[in-house]
Write a structure and sequence with these properties.
globular, alpha+beta, 7 strands, 7-stranded mixed beta sheet, 31% helix
Length: 202
């Protein structure tokens, strides 16, 4: 089975954009949808060819609402994803799977717990507003005012729930089978995406 994951642009809610439109909703209706990453939709297809066909069917929406298309093909790698362009190149026999492991993009994988620990507001919450709402204290407000403030800002408080978020990609090259360490920020895990040479941008 080949897995496809569509990761939405920061300024859209991908699931809403895809499922609120008839053509994309019908294209996705036969699949079980999951959300491995924040603001993403993933599904299983029967083959790499079927995955590429689905991406072609959704191309209009991909251009407008999707930041990245990731493809996981077990015959290439059980753990690493392929970029859409690389998956297409393999499907059309432009590249052999053994020639695809040099150029990589590594995302940090930041969990909701990481964000809660760092006191970062969840996606969709204005950081300035969250900071302002969190600046009130018992000294600054009365009990009644404090209770009202807490009730008003409960939805904007960081939580320890929800899928992890892909953050700050690092472009690297695999050397002698080794992948350089991700060092852009402290994260719980990483996600490795194989790229074509043209996509590689160190």
């Amino acid at each position: 089975m080949t897995r496809v994951c569509l990761v939405g642009d920061e300024d859209v809610t991908l699931r809403y954009e895809l499922l609120s439109r008839e053509t994309s909703r019908e294209a996705l209706s036969t699949y079980d949808l999951s959300q491995p990453f924040e603001n993403s939709i993933a599904l299983e297809t029967v083959s790499l060819g079927a995955a590429m066909a689905l991406c072609n069917d959704l191309q209009w929406y991909v251009v407008r609402f999707v930041e990245s298309v990731l493809v996981r093909e077990p015959s290439v790698s059980e753990r690493e994803w392929l970029s859409h362009r690389l998956a297409q190149a393999i499907r059309s026999d432009e590249l052999h799977p053994d020639e695809t492991d040099e150029y990589l993009k590594i995302y940090g994988l930041e969990t909701a717990e990481d964000r809660a620990t760092a006191n970062e507001p969840p996606a969709g919450v204005d950081p300035a507003l969250a900071a302002a709402s969190g600046s009130g204290s018992a000294e600054a407000t009365g009990d009644g005012d404090r209770a009202e403030s807490q009730g008003a800002t409960a939805d904007s408080a960081p939580t320890r729930e929800g899928p992890p978020r892909l953050v700050e990609p690092l472009y690297v090259r695999r050397t002698d089978g080794e992948i350089p360490e991700y060092d852009l920020r402290d994260v719980s895990d990483t996600v490795v995406v194989r790229l074509t040479e043209d996509e590689y941008a160190p």
